[in-house]
Design goal:
This protein has one domain: TolA/TonB C-terminal domain, CATH 3.30.2420.10. The protein is 19% helix and 37% strand. The strands form three sheets. Strands 5-4-7-8 form a four-stranded antiparallel beta sheet, with helices on one face. Strands 1-2 form a two-stranded antiparallel sheet. It has a two-stranded antiparallel ribbon with strand order 3-6. The longest helix has 13 residues.
């Protein structure tokens, strides 16, 4: 038993890179490669990718008032890419219904399962939901800002 612990400590002291992969020299750009394996698709990427964005409603009163807020939502995504729970991270102060619409939109999102290491783990993602009026036409979008395991 002591020999095994001794060997492990020597390997750790020598900096053996068989324990952890070397990430030096990797690019910061998102490289997306798609492989099909039977009916399932796997994406190899540096960050989560929204495959299907949820529908975010622009409240009618907000369009008439010209409001253009931003709501931040934190969501837990399982290893299949489905949002299992979501909560408001930074709410909008307006009482028109932006917070509820953002929560519903992020709950409907689907993310591509992605692999950082050999295991495919669930992760937290922070999304920014924006409402904008461009020449009187309402536009909404969901943007992935940060994520962590």
């Amino acid at each position: 038993m002591y020999r095994f612990i001794f060997l492990i400590s020597i390997l750790l002291c020598l900096g053996c890179d068989t324990m952890e992969p070397n990430y030096e020299g990797t690019s910061t750009e998102i490289e997306l490669t798609q492989y099909s394996d039977l009916d399932q698709q796997a994406y190899f990427s540096d960050e989560p990718i929204i495959v299907k964005a949820g529908e975010v409603q622009y409240p009618r009163l907000a369009i008439q008032a010209g409001l253009e807020p931003t709501v931040w939502v934190k969501a837990y995504v399982d290893f299949h890419g489905k949002v299992t729970k979501a909560k408001i991270f930074k709410p909008c102060r307006s009482k028109v219904g932006f917070n509820e619409a953002a929560l519903q939109g992020v709950n409907e999102c689907e993310f591509a399962p992605f692999f950082i290491r050999p295991s495919q783990d669930p992760f937290w993602v922070i999304c920014r939901v924006e409402w904008r009026l461009e020449n009187g036409i309402p536009k909404t979008q969901i943007i992935v800002e940060r994520w962590h395991r």
